[in-house]
Design a protein that fits this description.
The strands form seven sheets. Strands 1, 2, 3, 4, 10 and 11 form a six-stranded mixed sheet that branches. Strands 14-13-12-17 form a four-stranded mixed sheet. A four-stranded antiparallel sheet has the order 19-18-21-22, with no helix packed on it. It folds into three domains: 280 residues, ATPase, nucleotide binding domain (Nucleotidyltransferase, domain 5); 118 residues, Sandwich (Substrate Binding Domain Of DNAk, Chain A, domain 1), CATH 2.60.34.10; 63 residues. The N and C termini lie far apart (75 Å). The protein is built from 13 helices and 25 strands. Helix 7 packs parallel to helix 8. It is an alpha+beta fold. The longest helix is centred in the middle third of the chain and has 25 residues. It binds adenosine monophosphate. Adenosine monophosphate binds next to helix 5 and helix 6.
Length: 575
Amino acid sequence: MKPIVGIDLGTTNSEVAIIREGRPLVIADAAGKQIVPSFVGRSPTGEMLVGELARNQYTVDPERTIKSIKRKMGSDERVNLGEETYTPPEISAFILRRLKSMAEEFLGESVEQAVITVPANFSDKQRQATKDAGEIAGLEVLRIINEPTAAALAYRLDREEDQFLVVYDLGGGTFDVSVIEINSGVVEVRASHGNTELGGDDFDAALVKYIAEDFKQQHGIDLQADRRSLARLTRAAEAAKIQLSDAPFAQIREEFIATQDGKPLHLEMEIERSRFEALVSDMLESTIECVQQALEDASLSADEINKVLLVGGSTRIPRVADILEDVMMAQPHLEVDPDLCVAMGASAQAGIIAGEPIDAVLVDVSPHSLGIEVAEWQMMGPVFDQYNVIIRRNTPVPVSKSEVYTTLSPDQKNVEIKVYQGEEPIASHNTLLGEFLLEGVKQTKRGQPEIIVNFDYDVNGIVHVSGKDKRTGAAQEITVTATPDRLTEEQKADATERVGDVEIVWDAAPTDSHEDAVVLLERASEVDDSLADGEEKTDLRELISALETALGNQDEEAIDELQEELLDLLYDLED
Ligand code: AMP
């Protein structure tokens, strides 16, 4: 059978996937990379560059490099690349050719058919341009499917009961939210909204601006004025942003980023997660307005939505799930890798077309939330026994996450760290997995020390928990084991119903051995009838009556013994 690949042709990144052993698999290139940046460039020596190389060139030579061609699909605009001009489908075809050859290298055979995804709000013209791009690249496009539909297919929600979903897709350059209806296995977009000019690049830009302003205040030099230092700063900002998704601080260190009076200047700075969140907060809030608009367009309210799926690399920012949970009142799903989810769903659609049985993507997740006990300051003072989650339930593992905490009393020397597993807001209502004392905390005003607590969760459910005072470096750690999955509330209710329906006989029914004894007694009385009076008949009658008494008393031990004796006697008599 000829292979059919699934392709996510994204604004920032693209991926190609196939079905392997019934499951979606995203193909990696020779260097092991699954994500191909959607950049196309011409090197100064005339070579055509696609992906990482083109992206690297973009930062220093944007005239010879094209990014975000997806935004121009369906328009008549032409773009310049070196000396030549190209149409948007032609530029997209370079990306598709790269993906096609990755798949061919992996499979060892030619690939000629594909399913390609597009945003739900793409017009017919934009869809046709995408199909054209496929054909230019030598691919027969069997189907164009909507990106949120692909996400639902990656989770195989088409096989579940009828339901409504919200697919929230925040990538590098665009934001889309769609309300999806699943009805008898058919996945349909009911409403879609978004902002084609909002994504991770804007978060990077906000961070760049903040860092550049700080640097300017210190040294009087604007790093944004020089293309090379801006390029380095942008990369450093993106790396810091990604770190902040898992840690409360990120360090930025760029040596020799500028010169002053002939002397080199270095950039060295620490960014706090809360600072980053403040910088992007308005942008994130604007996505929530789009969610509300999409719900309104679909004539649905938040409580009618069964699941929320997160798609796109920027949804790894923890604040995204938090604000969405507040409006949707349900914890969003991030189990399937948000960068690869759409490509996987496209390959699931390819598999469905080919008639293959397809399973959902297999991911190991933490079955429960993990966190520590904290005290929270409220109006009346500290409230103890509060649960602060560090790793949320259903987070793909392995995973490493840290949070920062502080002291409660002045001159506090030690901090007790209690590790819990569970979902209850009161810490002690969860399962205590372990505890330890961090000694050697800097003695100062309460709320001053910064204690970083890190959870490292491996695929076997082993969790290394460490606490460290950022200032003194004092550290302590323990290893605990997260207990395996317990029954969910739904499973419990289901099991209770099934067990509750079964009638149970409480009185002990006669056991098999008693049946044997009854049969044996019948046989013995037949022998008794045939025996003439004498010693043997007396012995037999005594045994029969003893066994009858033992049966009446349910004296198991005596029943067994007397049965044996009776059997022996009958054996002799019947001989
Ligand atoms: P996509 O277009 O879906 O591939 O998303 C790419 C965007 O996701 C880029 O802006 C990345 O910087 C961003 N991104 C990837 N991983 C993370 C992360 N762990 N935290 C925050 N943003 C991320």
